[in-house]
Amino acid sequence: IANSGDATEISCMNYILSHPLFKEEILQKGAYGEDYGGRGAAIASSIFAGMLIGGIVTGAYGDRLGRRPTLLAGLFLNATSGIAASMAPSAVAMCACRFFAGLGIGAVLSSLITLASELSPSKHRGWYITIVGGFWTLGSVFIALLAFILFGRNNYSWRIFVLIAASPTLLGGILVYAFVPESPRYLALHGRYQDAADVANHVAESFGYIGEKLSVGEIREHYCHLTEEKDYLLQKNDNAMKKIRDLYGKTLLYNVTLPLLYFALANIPGNALATVLVDRVGRKALLFGSMTSAALCLGLAAHGANDAEARQLQVILSSCAFHSFLVTGWCALSVMTSELFPTSIRGTGMGVCSGVGRIAGILVQYVNGAFIDQPLVLLLTAATCMMTGAFAPIICKLQDMTNKHLFEIPSMAMGVVEGDGQAVHKIV
After folding, report:
1. Distance (Å, rounded) from C-alpha 162 to C-alpha 8?
2. What would the pLDDT profile of 220-276 be if each residue is shown by its tens digit?
């Protein structure tokens, strides 16, 4: 639910930028008409600016303060900002609300998948993380259906739309607060062995495990030297942590909202495909295949865009296939990214990756504003970038952690930790 809330908050701007009242109240720039290239681009990109800063900063704090507090703070900040955005009187106020929503989303992105990966058993970790990622599709479908009902079939205010869009995030925060525990790996790595044992045993029981419970002594035996090394590494990199903290169609009508609903629904088979294949074919193979297929589908959409009226079916079908393959790739990428970082810095790693990725999200809003009347150029550029990204895991020789245990500290990732690892086998 928390992940679906992020999707609704990010995607809602796709629908309200073209709303007549939004253009009149927020985008209107005197006698010059709607300012898409300036105000529109600034509003659309401000959430990505917040995600950039929020992901990097909160990821580092999440490794120190805990995944659960970081996730809760992000969810409630996002929900509060979404509610405030529904009452924004100007473009400046809207930018501010979207920026703070981005800060909250950055916190969620840095902690949500991290927490899910550390609470899941190694054998089925990809499946569980994909299920969590699949709720992004649920949020996309929800917001598309909401736009279709409020704007496509009726003529409700964009403020009501934005207010309802914040509800999944608020609900997710309440559910996380009530039911989701802290990561046992995080607790053990920070010397809270009793809490780690309690959470690990509770999670194991929820998965149907009926064997011998994990004892405090087993966790202490395995993690005591890791805790010491973790503290040394944190102290050694404290200055770097401080530096990181210091840095940082135009008309929304019935015939437009319906295809957008199709695109959102197309995410469902993509999630299903990722769920079935992520633990079978491996993360790297699934990422390469899905991103390559998405790029090819986008190329077909670009070909159809040359004569969109005559090739409308081609554009819609290829776009639906693109969304399906894209969400499959994102699921594989989320799993792979969370697994590559050791527990001691997983939150920071996820935060930096999700934050830096927002740079493109910011820049592309201005590119869209400049080339809004040249869709062919945009589609071909996006297809080329995606095809290039498909080869990144292969070129960079990233490790595939399919059905393997997670690392706890950086030295474990380099294969220098000694011991039989029996305790960690139980906890994972």
Report:
1. 9
2. 777 766 554 445 444 444 443 343 333 223 333 344 556 667 777 888 888 888 888
CA distance 106 to 57: 9
For 169: left if phi > 0, alpha if psi spans -120 to 50, otherwise beta; the answer is alpha
What's the token pair of residue 227? 């805790």
Q: Which two tokens stand for residue 397?
A: 């020789």
pLDDT tens digits, 99-129: 999 999 988 988 888 888 888 877 788 888 8
Cα 295 → chain centroid:
20
Q: What is the token pair recorded at 54?
A: 């929020």
C-alpha 143/C-alpha 264 separation (Å) is 9
Query: In degrees to the nearest 10, what's the CA dihedral of 58, 60, 64, 69?
Result: 20
Q: Read off φ and ψ for residue 369, nearest 5 degrees.
A: -65, -35
Rg of the chain taking only CA atoms, in angstroms = 22
Lowest-pLDDT range, 135-144, 149-158, 294-303?
A: 294-303
Tokens read off for 102: 């981005």
Helix-helix angle 267-277:312-340, to 10 degrees: 40
How does the average pLDDT of the chain come out, rounded? 78
Q: How many CA atoms lie within 13 A of 61 on its CB side?
A: 16
Mean pLDDT of 296-319: 78
pLDDT in tens, 182-213: 988 888 888 888 988 888 888 888 877 777 88
Per the confidence metrics, is the pTM higher than 0.70? no
Tokens of 146: 């909401």
Residue 160 pLDDT? 94
